[in-house]
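Justification of computing resources. Each target in the renewal requires a structure prediction run like the one illustrated here; the chain below, 232 residues long, is used simply to show the kind of job we budget for.
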Amino acid sequence: MHISTFLERSDPTQLHVCLPPDFDSSYYSTDFFSIFCKNLHGIECLTASGWQIAPLEMETFPNVREISFYDDDNSWEENWDGVTRPLDINVSKFPRLEAIDSIYGSWLNVATPSPDRFPNLLRLSLSADAKSMWFKIIKYTARTLESLFIRSWAVHNVPGDFVLDLPALKSLETSNFPHNTPWLARITTPSLISYKAFHNREGFFPHYTTITTHTDVGSVTHLRMDIIPNLS
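Resulting structure tokens:
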């Protein structure tokens, strides 16, 4: 395969590797994963499906800075139910990881003994999930996170005492949350520059007066919203 050739000959250039959604290594040479594992040091960005990464759970990705999971991965239901073990994200496996783009937080294993094991991410994009994995992931990365994109496809319960301090966050984007999302008002973002919010308008009527959104926007210079809230 071409990817095997590129991996073997690319040194010292770091590669952006994208495994097609329908790629199954069992259909190809049995040497593929052997070559792939031997050259993981040559990968800087990796895009794949969760089930494609599963065989590599014991490997280390020393130079990967960004990892993305496909939105159309057909295996998400297995991961959602816990049948397939999610990818373990820790600094030992991903010592240089800066960005994660995962449509489901359940694909990421955050059941770690200590938040110190989670990489110091700069960019994070993920969806709210029923198991609240997204809370843990954001909390583990709160100190260093500079960009956060959260999307929602359903109304998920959020603990009433949920408070989050994101001191380094410069960009915040939320998508498809209900127009009344109280927990957004409990996020502190003193360095925020860009804030975008697009809401789930199901059941929304103009006469509604309660519109709760993120309010710590004193430093924002770029604001884009589809519902105008009352901002101080």
